[in-house]
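Model: You mentioned two targets. I'll fold them one after the other.
Researcher: Yes, keep them separate.
Model: Target one:
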Amino acid sequence: MSYADKEIACRECGGRFVFTAGEQEFYASKGFTNEPTRCPAQRRARKHGAPLPAGPCQHDVSGTGVVTSGAAARSATGSLQGGPPRASRTPYSGRLPSDPIPARVLRIDPAGRFLFARVEPDGFDVYVHHSLFRDAGVREGDQVRLLVEASDRGPRARALWVEP
């Protein structure tokens, strides 16, 4: 059977989101017969017990963290985030501090699996795994302190503390 992307109205917020052909095929392979009735933001909120966003949501219709209004947006470089592809990025090679350092949360993965924080005095980004922040109530823009270590993909956090 062939599938085509279709727009669906969210029953919670009233906004429209795209139920992609790939998602439809996945649903069919699992034996699901009903289409989703909630947008990705509303489904995430319900799954994690978070308060539901009020009014029409900005929808992550691609499932990749790119907020769009209809279909997944790609830049001229082909990158979903608008920056250079990961393979062409050079990891931070500066000296990493051994003590906890201040940082600001830049972006949290829509599925809550990771976040990126910017170390403010030095201006580099740090990857933070969900196991360090999932119970801390961290939000984008929050001030945190990080204990940072090097990894093959760049700096990553070993510990995170939320600033009061």
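Model: Target two:
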Amino acid sequence: MLEILSYEFMQNALISGVLVSIAAGIIGSLIVVNRMVFLAGGIAHTSYGGIGLAVYFGLPIFFGASVFAILAALLMAALTINKRDRIDTFIGLIWAVGMAIGIIFVDLTPGYNVDLMSYLFGSILAVSKEDIYYMYALVIAIIFIVTFWYRDILAVSYDSEYAKLRGINVNLFYTLILVLSALTVVIAIKVVGLILVIALLTIPIYIAEKLSNTLYIMMFYSALLASFFTIVGLFVSYTFNLTSGASIIMVSAISLMLFLGIKKYRG
């Protein structure tokens, strides 16, 4: 089994998988405790608009998807900060428009780009060195931001009213979490695809939440579990010639069912 590590594409896949898992574990924890799962799903599907624009104008896919996802996150933040009761309406609208923009620009692009399917279902084996550098930079930025402003993010995540009384700019951190979520979603798309990205941002986090008593420990366990699921899923996909993204999510889902079964049995 270890001979597959001699291939450069497998080395890149493992490195990128771990990097994405670290980002997903940290940001996924913030998404869950802030009850933003639907928001992250909206950003994931909206980012397809950026993919379509990048393909049409011949730009780097990550660049197009990142810019579009950030703009979508900023728009969602502006629309939902003071109107949380209408959040589902805004997300559904932006979700649909983003997907429509992507599809239209793909249709307008001469010829058919087969690689587009990899952004729907993931293609971790096609990760390049440039992609890995981008992931490294994002993971470092996420770790720095969360570490430096941990107490503020913690206060905003669990009690925004208390955070306001302490003088914390709740709107700023709400928007920052959404922007970081958008960037994490973009790199996770490369691994599991935009259709499955929410599973990667929630399944490890759900298990970690049950094993943790602090947000910091929850992030650590989430990153560890996501890395484990990604590595095992990658080996499964290579061994049985399956789609990598789907394999990773199935490993995660099976692990979740085993966890719940053991928890119920012990309970």
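Researcher: Noted. Anything on target two?
Model: Residues 24 and 201 are 6 Å apart (CA to CA).
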